[in-house]
Design a protein that fits this description.
Length: 165
Amino acid sequence: MSDSEPEIIVRAAQPCVVIGETVPMAELGRVAHRIPELFAWLGGHGIEPAGPPFFKYDVIDMARELTVEVGVAVGSPVPGDGDVVSGTLPGGRYASLTHTGHPDELEAATALLLSWAGERGLRWDMTQTSAGEAWGCRLEFYKSDPATEPDMSRWETELAFRLAD
């Protein structure tokens, strides 16, 4: 596993298209299988992606369910249809870390980022609800393309968790 040093970054708001799912943690892979569907939708509408695919975690309750969106940024807002909906990735300050390694190692990378932020007294854009942790924006950007990098131990993933104002 290889991780960059965590840092605070500023992201501009960005239009995107997403497909949302609510799944137990054990079925998170079901959401990942929708990435090709999302890219097929973009291609079918003549829309170029403006960034790598991402997971956006909206509500996290590891013991029960996760509310997750799989998405991709686009250059300008577009109307969705069917399961594909238009959205916006919120702008603001984020704690960020780039992980190089197998996606199964992301739990450890996430723990590193959470610990780093905690040591600095940073607060997350997150609220505890009865459904779990409701995040303003918690992202995983999958920067490696499996078609060109089949070795999952070399995949690059950026974690970006929005900080409270």
